[in-house]
## 1
Amino acid sequence: MIPGTRFPPSFLLFLLWTLQCGLVLFLAAINPNHYTTIDSHLYLESASRLLGGEGYRIRQNNVLIWNGIYPMGYSSLIAMVSFMTSLNVLWASKVLNLIASAIWLLSLRKWFGESKALFMGTLLLLGSFLKLWAHTWSEPLFLMVLFSWFYHFVRNMTKPGQPAFRDFLILFLLGTLLMLIRYAGIFIIMLTVLAGIYSALKHTSLRAFFFLMLSLLWLICFGGYLWLNYWHTGSYYGGERLDDTFRFLPVTLLFAKGLLNELLIIRDFVPGKSDVLFLVATFLQIFLTARLSLNLRKTDHQIAGTTESWVRYAAGTAIAYLLFLFVLRNISPFDPPGYRLLAPFTFLAVWALLLYLSEYAISRYSKLLFAVLVLASWFQLVPDKDLKSKFQSLLNLI
């Protein structure tokens, strides 16, 4: 039992997931296009053609071609869920995202205990993550697999003794799956190489071999997949994505704006469009955060060494992803970094913060403030279009 409640944490964990499911499915149902984008339609088309026995293909210029734009992991799993549930591929994609979060919550429960899992799991209820989960995008699945990879990676970095073949196999499969969901998964290779070099400097040769061999195998697998794309389409990644123009200052400004909006969990800052509602939301967030911080300072706490270690590794992994994305954005003009592209960074950062706070004996008042902050983040779900006129109509009715 969690102090102050009459319910076992396992039931509350299930309730949290059920709430996420209800909110995500509700959002997807009421949205005119069910939270789909051009990317979503490519995922869904490939999944449909896999189910129809046509292979991992999309129609382009009235010709069926191999889908080299995105790796096949996400569409393949959508097709699998659709086949097993008889749902159409659109709703199978939503169910797949929710299955991923269920597995993540169960993993947290196993790895960190029920009470901490419940507290850390609340990040799934933040407005930006509810919106992310409602979309037919590969990011929710990517986040869940990334976290599992991160957990096993850190365990093998910090546990005494030598890594076993089972550890090698788990990390290899998780890393490979990560790259099959999003090409951006290759950023883990850099981290693993650094882990191998660090282990070599510490004179743990077997562990160094473990990490360097993993890196080599992932490079071979990723290179093999790019060759498969080239063999099918004549392009390594579904078209031209890279150029030789380096845009350091403009990209830095884009990232600064994106990171600012990741901090503003209630309402985003939009240059030239931000209004009174943005100012009210920002003030509310500052007030709630300040009150919560003051309350926590008065609370007894003792941060365990293992918790500090997890927080450091999570911060390092989040920063590594951010640096990877920054370098890539300088040589590839993809979308500006928003909540979707920055989700791996934000997810790990928020998880680390919640893990750290879970060591505090949090009072009921602090829990209430935290709950209000989470609920306030749902304002992110309110569309910007015609918001002022809709709000004025509501005031007139009152």
Note: Residues 139-239 form one domain.
## 2
Amino acid sequence: MIVLSDFSFMHPHLIFKRMKQQAGVFNYQKQTLSSLMAGKDQTLQERMEWGKMRMDPTDISDVTGAVMSFLVNGHGPADNWTGLFTPGERVRLRFINAAAQMMFNVRIPGLKLTVVAADGQTVKPVEVDEFQIGNAETYDVIVQPIEDKAFTLVAEAVDRSGMGRATLAPRAGMTAPVPPLRERPLATMKDMGMGMSGMDMNGSGAMDHAAMGHDMAAMAAAPGMAAPKPRGSDVMGDMGGMKMSMRDPLNAPQIKLGPGVQTITPMPIDRTSEPGQGLESVGHRVLVYKDLLALTPNPDTRTPTRALEIRLTGNMERFMWGFDGQKFSDATKPYAFDKGERVRVTLVNDTMMAHPIHLHGHFFELTHAPVGFGPRKHTVIVLPGGKVS
């Protein structure tokens, strides 16, 4: 059992207060003038475009390693928690993300990970090198270390601000090299629900796509594999003179506009074939939701009787989050489901942060697979600007 968690010596109420007082207060990885001069991160034009939109592409996670420690089975990175194995044996590891806030990218350099269960439900085995795990998600993986040596288990924070670290070894006291933190990711126009970059914000608050002349982004490789990463924001082709508002209520009439709704995704897309922010160009296979197929047929294959769209809304600057524009404390009635009915629910992420959505005490079936073989899960990560059914 591998339980991932986060911990801070700062009181949670103080953490929350500081985030409400100052946006990005714990983000120590912002873009700088020196990075611009060195040709890193976004170009000057891209930075100006994002500045017009009052968006920060480095805002991947709110509570970072600046104030959090990341633990494996309750132990910090320096503790070297060790799980023992006999060379040649197959070991089943159940990863549980019990963190209050952080999502993790998990890998064991030198070992393949065969995923056999997601959220406790068996899936057809799929071999990967890394997977992203959201809050409340669980994954069962099988590893088979052949060599008589130690392997480092890495649970890297999604914003690359820190990591949890442990060791798998044939004997206690052994260690393996700990890889350095990788370069922190940047949000892209796709994370805004645009799928393209190089947009100018005009005076009316819409984006002007005229005369961009950008090249197409590098095509994706096989599912879960890395594609070449262009500098700064992802780029796509010229969109003619198309304009779109980042807060157009016509895109989601059910949303109650207010200070808690910073953006409304104009063109949400299914991103379940993508590995997650920062994992597009890691050079090895990363698990994606579309890799997951139920091992045994689902017992209920009825056609849904109705469809429901729920928008994940928020204001990243004020640290406000809600469903369809309403905070939990302001909601007057729940989403109604009748006993025994089968409903197709589509979650649309109108924010620029990934959100793990958890249905407590119940499983749902993801719809990307052939009928009857959608993986049954209780938690799913909805990527920024994306949607999941």
Note: The two ends are 30 Å apart (CA to CA).
## 3
Amino acid sequence: MPEPRAPRQPDSPHEKRHTVHTKTRLAAALACTAAVLTWSLTTAGTAAAADPLTLTSGFYVSPESSPAVWVAANPTDSRAASIQTNIASRPIGRWFGTGSTGSAVASYVGKADSHDKLPVVVAYNLPGRDACGGESSGGAGSVAEYKTWISTFAAAIADRPAVVVIEPDALGDFSCMTQTAIDERLDMLRYATEMFQEKAPNTWAYLDGGNAGWTSAATMAPRLDAAGVDNVRGFSVNVSNYYSNSASLTYANAVNAELGGTARFVVDTSRNGNGSNGEWCNPAGRKLGTPPQTGGGAEMLLWVKTPGNSDGECGIAPTVPAGVFSPDLAMRLINGT
């Protein structure tokens, strides 16, 4: 359940901003309704949605991110100030997976909305997720369970603005899956795109499209198409990986060309400041990338992965499980060591 809010004066600056955004959403909804017939008679292309960037005043920086929580719990640690300045103060994606409920999603996006900020959230709960890497295995127990979960996820966002990355690695894992599992996965992803289109009208959702070192653009584009990319805003690249902006943009533009140039894309730049050395699991010598922003060659450059969260028990963090924050990993990314 969302936290209760203290009473506010109706003429406060925040109230005025919130009222303006509410009116903007209403106008967008009315315009969208009026355009339904026209839209239905045209080629689908990239799914239309209200612009969450214009409905908000910047990306949401959560005080509940794992770096922020660590800094708050360790204020006298010599690393705290640097981690706060370089990581915890940045907008970072919030991942939801096994065990996450609609109330958790609603609470998170609700807090962002109460500050007129745009949250970046990640849906990560497909059955058999991380089929190739194995460090983040798990997910929903069945197709039916996943469809209920993702429908609840989308409904929890409702009409609040959000950016959603749908199932990192899902389309890159095919070489480690049976054809039956691939067919089921494509069905679940198509359903996910339909749910965000139907239940979260002010959300820009992006199907994950792998990274520059995994598959070719000619291979990835048909997978995105089969997974329902036309139902959402576009696709994401380089999530939780290290490929440079240049390599990621080249790959993403090639994928988009294969799709007919109709999709938009976002790039995860959280840890790509030094580019990739060919390793994906806590490699040494990596560095923080470009801070989150709109543009930069993509629709947005985002920190989807939390810098300092482990990729798994591997590389320079052999005892830190996947998804757990390590101040040592964070400092290495800050210093490029």
Note: The first strand starts at residue 94 and ends at 96.
